[in-house]
Amino acid sequence: MTGKEIIGAALKLQATPRYPVTLMSGGAWALNSAGISLEKALASPPEKIAAVLYGAYSGAGSDIFWAVSGFNNILIGAIGGKIKFRAKGTPDVIEPLVKHIPDIDTISTSAFKDTPQMRFLYETSRLLVRQTGGEHFVALTRWGPFTLAGLLYGAENLMRGVYRDPGSVRRLLEWTAELYLADVQNYIDAGVDFALVAEPTASGDMISREHFAAFALPAFTKVFTALKQKGIATCLHICGNIENRLDLLNGIGADLISVDYKVSLKKCREIFGGKTAFAGNMNPVGVIQRESPEGVARACERCISEAGEDTGYILMPGCDIPPSTPAENIKAMVHTGKNTRRNT
Questions:
Q1: What phi and psi, each to the nearest 5 degrees, are found at residue 261?
Q2: What global pTM score does this model have?
Q3: What per-residue confidence (pLDDT) applies to 311?
Q4: Can you list the pairs that 203-208 forms with residues at least 24 positions away whose Cβ atoms lie under 8 Å?
Q5: What angle do helix axes 166-189 and 155-164 make, rounded to 10 degrees?
Q6: Are 66 and 27 within 8 A, CB to CB?
Q7: pLDDT reported for residue 53
Q8: Which of 41, 138, 189, 329 has its CA 20 to 30 Å from the CA of residue 30?
Q9: What was the pLDDT predicted at 344?
Q10: DSSP-derived secondary structure for 202-228
């Protein structure tokens, strides 16, 4: 079976001969491994960067290849926000673009796709899709509507707003959901066939279950309903501890739920088993970056044991890996997954 067939079967809760295994994102790692910063990549020919990404994911043995991940905040820059690049890693948003929620009416979202950096991202994705030859999902990871709202309006302002002005926050989330979908459509047009919606701001470390259900969940449902209609595979990733809201995620329409290392895979199996595929949850820093290859393999074996023999589990780090992660550790993770046979 190809990597795409293995992942596709897992998403449908079908039996696979071995455990599916993939990086989550890893764009900054892939480019850093080639001595290229994200800022430098944007000034390079798309053909060069597509080849670097293809070489990194194929060399690692990942079942999913990730299209230009690490560039999440470029969209914010393309609609007028201020971002700053790091020497390594992903660029940061310097300050909120939206000072007051009605300001969204003054922000143009019709021309962002024609900015040079966005055209570069779409073209690089198209070239990566061509190189994979249909043997792997080519996946996009971008901030989902709740995290996008926090970056544009300020996370503290967003959290304050759910108490003081819930109607305006819901309006903002409707707008960021539409912005997300407009951006993703360009990647779908380029051939990307898997979308991971990244939502660190919806973490249990930041927002209560009650407000998560009232504000984040409707935005997620809107996005996943629209993506399902477009015929692509989907995943939701939320950082931090979300054990007290896992049960809310079965019905939102995502094919896969990805969890952080703070979330028990046994709990995921209890909540999602036979209903929704799930992935995770190795610590990307404490294990994937800092452990020995043998330590990584042991952590993978623990994940597989906790996830159980039920179908629908994908071995994956609990978040994006640091740019300086040793290649040997990634290969140890992939080797463990690919060489662990299932009894189902």
A1: -70, -15
A2: 0.96
A3: 82
A4: 203/238, 203/239, 203/240, 203/241, 203/242, 203/260, 204/240, 204/241, 204/242, 204/243, 204/244, 204/245, 205/239, 205/240, 205/241, 206/155, 206/159, 206/240, 207/159, 207/162
A5: 130
A6: yes
A7: 98
A8: 189
A9: 54
A10: GSTTTS-HHHIIIIIHHHHHHHHHHHH
Domain layout of the chain by residue ranges: 3-338
**Residue-level pLDDT at 292:** 97
Tokens of 102: 């009605």
Question: CA distances (Å), 267 to each of 203, 237, 260, in order?
Answer: 17, 16, 12
List, in order, residues 6 or more apart from 267 with CB less than 8 Å away: 243, 246
Cα dihedral value 307, 312, 316, 319, nearest 10 = -90
Residue 294 tokens, joined: 């043998």
Backbone angles phi, psi at 250, to 5 degrees: -65, -30
Phi, psi of 69 (to 5 degrees): -75, 155
pLDDT of 89: 80
Closest by Cα among 245, 279, 243, 235 to 262: 243
Task: Kindly give, in sequence order, each residue whose CB lies less than 8 Å from that of residue 86, ignoring residues fewer than 6 positions away.
Answer: 37, 38, 92
Q: Distance between terminal CA atoms of the chain?
A: 16
Q: Which two tokens stand for residue 301?
A: 């074996």
Which of the residues in the chain have pLDDT under 50? none
The residues, any chain, with a CB within 8 Å of residue 287's CB and separated by 6 or more, are 261, 295, 296, 299
Q: How far apart are CA 121 and CA 184, in angstroms?
A: 11
**Which H or E element spans position 297?**
helix 293-307
The residue to which tokens 């430098």 are assigned: 40
Residue position matching structure tokens 């909120």: 96
Among 2.10.70.10, 2.70.70.10, 1.10.3720.10, 3.20.20.210, what is the CATH number of 3-338? 3.20.20.210
DSSP letter for each residue of 30-74: HHHHTT--HHHHHTS-HHHHHHHHHHHHHHHT-SEEESSTT-TTH
What is the CA angle 67-72-73, rounded to 5?
150
